[in-house]
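User: quick one, fold this
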Amino acid sequence: MLAVAGFRRPLAAAAARSGGGGAMPRKGKAAGKGPAELGAAAGPVVAAGEGCVRVAVRAKPGSRCSAVTDVTAEAVGVAIAAPPSEGEANAELCRYLSKVLEVKKSEVILEKGGKSREKVVKILVSMTPDEILEKLKKEASS
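Assistant:
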């Protein structure tokens, strides 16, 4: 029994030094990496460097028509008139954003979130984040 107790003490001492009982951090929306963390301070549209802009998008596939529904501090809500299967909604999202932002379809790329509602879209044009945000807000209000 003394040998077993001897093993427990070093482990208990190591756990006490590390500041916790070995508990793992919680998983959840706040702990995960996503579009909300991408531009939490600057909003849903941020400069990505190299003349690119990233837009955090909350997709709502299966809608009757494509539209910008809302612009919040975390993401731009976009209703997509395509089903969420086989990449149809992703293609429609890029097509619709290119129309709204008045850029070529090839300049709008889905960077993250291919199978998620939380997406990050990269715009490959030299526009400022403020210009893009203004166009998105204008589309949301109409």
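User: anything notable?
Assistant: The longest helix spans residues 2-18.
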